[in-house]
């Protein structure tokens, strides 16, 4: 599939590449195995890249214009490397525009534009982080054309793939990254787990990271005889769509807790995870109980806090250890607990994702969970290789019977490799 995507993207720009200067990148989507709304709070996630993703081909230009061609849709937009670039009206154009505006603002050497064509086999707005993958792909191509690795400001700020993941997350959420100043981003207050999985994932393995900043904690191999079946519910979870406000409210609740803790304790903790490490979860919880916060009820903040602590501090390390020793029964029970917390305390589930997670377990999956921002999106199920086709057919049948108006998609993947430059044949 990757070869087919590359061929089609190359064909869209072939007349422009007489000098043979084009470059191409593969950027995968990701599965958040565990880590529901933990990364932007400095917590942990257990993630992997998938075998589906974006191919982007870029041909350098002699000016600062960037023409972005959506090969599948037959649509294109011409933007530019401009720190004051205005936000386009169409939703899909906002992602490359955000990257181009930020990269040209942060790095004065990035002024050479490109004709850029992309294709993807990731379902859109599915929770597999197609929007982040698209933004990463645009960044890598433009950075390559402009030899960004030689830029002094870049070299000073970004030394590892983890650093780059952290920076790319700030392009999306609008925050600054050290001396690299931020802007409006795409309007969501998310973290960097998506970008970390895409840039640091390893084939066949799950990666445990903590965040703010990005820190690698461990790798665990997924059993060789297991694969993920992913059900895309058909309920869109677009970062620039209707789910944005609900997604941001979960993030803003964390900010409210952290602000209350800083005011009460006098500590300068930079994340909720740091506050818990420094002051202890019971002390932070006591502050929540006695502090009035505009816009949030105490019960809402306590639910958000309790979900974060259990997911990040307890469930994820235990789940990684269970996978490591091949204890899929314990792993499944821990994932069930994470799903329950998302439904009751985090409140980011919809009836479709709740049903998919429960029915997957009833049909024999080792474990199953909704993932991503929530409020739609997808559910993963871990299934033996020998049962994948039968399981997927039964799962789809059950879902269509319960939610007949929906148009689900089902895909199968092992943990895939990280983003990479694609070798281009010049024949």
What portion of residues is helical?
A: 40-55%
Unreliable spans: none
Give the biggest beta sheet.
8 strands, mixed
Count of helical stretches: 13
CATH class designation of the domain at 2-221 and 416-421: Alpha Beta
What does it look like?
The chain is built from 13 helices and 12 strands. Helix content is about 45%, strand content about 20%. Strand 6 (about 205-210) and strand 7 form a beta hairpin. The strands form 2 sheets. Strands 1, 2, 3, 4, 5, 6, 7 and 12 form an 8-stranded mixed sheet that branches. It starts with a helix and ends in a 6-residue tail after the last strand. Helix 2 (about 90-105) packs across helix 3 (about 130-145).
Spell out the key features of this protein.
alpha+beta, Ribosomal Protein S5, domain 2, 8-stranded mixed beta sheet
Short précis:
This protein is α+β, with helices and mostly antiparallel strands and 427 residues long.
What's the SSE blueprint?
Layout lengths: L1 H12 L9 E12 L9 E17 L4 E6 L4 E6 L10 H16 L7 E7 L9 H16 L6 H6 L3 H13 L19 H8 L4 E6 L4 E7 L4 E7 L11 H22 L6 H8 L1 H10 L7 H27 L3 H19 L4 H12 L4 E5 L6 E7 L3 H15 L6 E5 L6 E2 L6
